[in-house]
Amino acid sequence: LTNKILLSANSLSPELVSIFLKGGGSLDINSVRKKPKEWIPDKGWLDMVALSQHNTFSDLLESVYRNNGLWRQWYDQEAPEEVNIPDFEEQITPFERMCLVKSLREDRTLVAAQSYIADAIGQKFVDSVPLNMEATWGESTPLVPLVCLLSPGSDPTKLIEELAKRKKIKVLGVSMGQGQETIARKFMTTATIEGQWVLLQNTHLGLAYLSEVETYLSKAEGVHAEFRLWITAEPHRLFPIGLLQMSIKITNEAPVGMRAGLRNSYAWVTQDMLDVVGRYEWRQLLFVMCFLHSTVQERRKFGPIGWNVPYEFNQSDLSACVQFLQNHLMEM
């Protein structure tokens, strides 16, 4: 998106974008200029050869030969995207910096990309924004359902239940599947009259009933003002378009990175939660629990190396652990 914005404003070279995406994949290490030192990876050198074809980096290879020691120091940095680049620091743009980082330190490309996006269109487009379920509920009406699109490691069920508890509203929940339509119909009838919430979970397993829900809402009259319909579903091509268009769509993807994970966990912690236990250890342990939750979530990215058995570690797990911790401290 950032690239498209800058390309349309003629602030970014299409040729350089092409080089960034393709790198030196079409080049052969035996047919290009020999790399000056063995510490330079073959792939990195081929990417630098490709970059040198652009005007900004026409002197790149000569610079590496001439100042090999400085380039090695830059290469060995823990965060090379944050330090001066030999011979090019004063003349390159954030995108060009990202190209160099991708060439020699591909492992830091994502971090460099975040800096590039923040510089181009703003930091708010980089930061992960925790889902504010109460604000989303405030935008809804009895006849405008809230559709929560599920993603790995993210289940909004607990957030919905906690919001209902704060609002002192009863939630009638049913996990959709074969034979659950009868229960769902009963809940819908009861909730629309008594002003309760209905939570239809995993509706991608019962898509046929959603068409019935769409018809029901479009014709409903005299619905209680407190009634709300929450729907959770994985993205599916057969999800009723009409129901999707009339609803508020929510997606709560699992946070990426420790910083985003901690921000997400801290946003979930309320003042009432902080005050519920009088012991001085409570707040410290609550922080430790949030930190641990973010850590185990981050380990998911390593697959079988991180965990022998895949597990999502979602918000429900954090809630259960905090509740156990609270009970333990209150019994001491």
Automatic annotation (TrEMBL):
InterPro entries: AAA_lid_11 (IPR041658), AAA_lid_11_sf (IPR042219), DHC (IPR026983), Dynein_heavy_D6_P-loop (IPR004273), P-loop_NTPase (IPR027417). GO terms for molecular function: dynein intermediate chain binding; dynein light intermediate chain binding; minus-end-directed microtubule motor activity. GO terms for cellular component: dynein complex. Residues 142-251 form the Dynein heavy chain region D6 P-loop domain. Pfam families: AAA_lid_11, Dynein_heavy. Residues 282-331 form the Dynein heavy chain AAA lid domain. One of its GO terms (biological process) is microtubule-based movement. This is Dynein heavy chain region D6 P-loop domain-containing protein. It comes from Mantoniella antarctica. The lineage of its organism: Eukaryota, Viridiplantae, Chlorophyta, Mamiellophyceae, Mamiellales.
